[in-house]
């Protein structure tokens, strides 16, 4: 669904509908299975309590462990899986890519759940600022995957609609410029072109580019192989292959990884909205940011 969202942002409505039809049914089925259970607090679902909170760990150490987890899954992805996904969106034929995508989604929903389950506004604010600090370190590590997973959580509707300090809201907007879709993600593409490996790219954009190339160009022209299409596909996939060749040299921290618990302790979208509306009912207007006040 991240890919569908980006397509909609770029005005590719027809392509978004095609992908949505192939993906949405599978995702809805998974969400429905866990919806009833996710309405309960995590502690009430038999989840073993782990000592400490996110604040017990340093932001750069958390970023390191997020990067190691991402890297382990990223290095397993085979190039043919990615190319095949752009054509068929078949989870069974792209198992490693599917696992990587699910990891991204679980992490994003885990971040949302941690924040929105805090009863006090000041506690929610502290966590949001903590995640912003983590994002800074992820950017230094060239880990765009976790960076965008966290950003998508902080910028999600159930979180964004809540009341935040003006400085916090404005600070978050600065991070959103990296994934501004109005210019085909120019800022992100420029940043990615300048990085030196190791790096974990955002695969959503790679899949989007491959899908555009696949749907916008025929395989054959006048009975001959369309080498222009193959060359475009090669260039997109070659950058990913290059990043897979250089490994991170970071130390494993079992305490932090155990705290993550595979990001399995998270709420579904419906439960997130329920808590968001409990914190702030719909009839209470959201305070405008400085940018919104100027427009």
From TrEMBL:
Query: What keywords are assigned to this protein?
Result: Guanine-nucleotide releasing factor
What PANTHER family does the annotation carry? GUANINE NUCLEOTIDE EXCHANGE FACTOR (PTHR23113), RAP GUANINE NUCLEOTIDE EXCHANGE FACTOR 1 (PTHR23113:SF224)
Please state every residue range assigned to the domain named Ras-GEF. 58-282
Q: Name one GO cellular component term.
A: plasma membrane
What is the recorded name of this protein?
A: CRK SH3-binding GNRP
Classification lineage: Eukaryota, Metazoa, Chordata, Craniata, Vertebrata
Which Pfam family, any one of them, does this sequence belong to? RasGEF
Q: Does the keyword Membrane apply?
A: no
For this entry, list what GO says about its biological process.
Ras protein signal transduction
Molecular function terms, GO-annotated: guanyl-nucleotide exchange factor activity
Q: InterPro entries annotated for this entry?
A: Ras-like_GEF (IPR008937), Ras_G-nucl-exch_fac_CS (IPR019804), Ras_GEF_dom_sf (IPR023578), RASGEF_cat_dom (IPR001895), RASGEF_cat_dom_sf (IPR036964)
| Organism, scientific name | Polypterus senegalus
Protein origin, superkingdom: Eukaryota
Q: Which residues form a coiled coil?
A: none
């Amino acid at each position: 669904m991240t890919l569908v969202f980006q397509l909609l942002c770029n005005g590719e409505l027809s392509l978004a509908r095609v992908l949505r039809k192939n993906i949405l049914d599978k995702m809805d089925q998974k969400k429905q299975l866990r919806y009833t259970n996710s309405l309960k607090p995590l502690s009430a679902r038999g989840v073993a309590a782990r000592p400490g909170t996110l604040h017990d760990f340093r932001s750069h150490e958390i970023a390191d462990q997020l990067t190691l987890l991402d890297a382990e899954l990223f290095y397993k992805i085979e190039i043919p899986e990615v190319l095949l996904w752009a054509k068929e969106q078949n989870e069974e034929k792209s198992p490693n890519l599917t696992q990587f995508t699910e990891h991204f989604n679980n992490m994003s929903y885990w971040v949302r759940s941690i924040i929105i389950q805090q009863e006090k506004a000041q506690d929610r604010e502290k966590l949001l600022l903590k995640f912003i600090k983590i994002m800074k370190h992820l950017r230094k590590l060239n880990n765009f995957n976790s960076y965008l997973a966290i950003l998508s959580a902080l910028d999600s509707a159930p979180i964004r609609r809540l009341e935040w300090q003006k400085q916090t809201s404005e600070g978050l907007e600065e991070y959103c410029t990296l994934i501004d879709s109005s210019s085909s993600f120019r800022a992100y593409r420029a940043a990615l072109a300048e990085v030196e490996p190791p790096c974990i790219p955002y695969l959503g954009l790679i899949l989007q580019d491959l899908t555009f190339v696949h749907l916008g160009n025929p395989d054959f022209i006048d009975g001959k192989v369309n080498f222009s299409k193959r060359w475009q596909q090669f260039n997109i996939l070659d950058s990913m292959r290059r990043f897979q060749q250089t490994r991170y040299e970071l130390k494993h921290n079992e305490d932090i990884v155990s705290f993550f618990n595979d990001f399995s302790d998270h709420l579904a979208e419906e439960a997130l909205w329920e808590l968001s509306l409990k914190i702030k009912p719909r009839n209470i207007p959201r305070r405008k940011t400085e940018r919104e006040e100027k427009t």
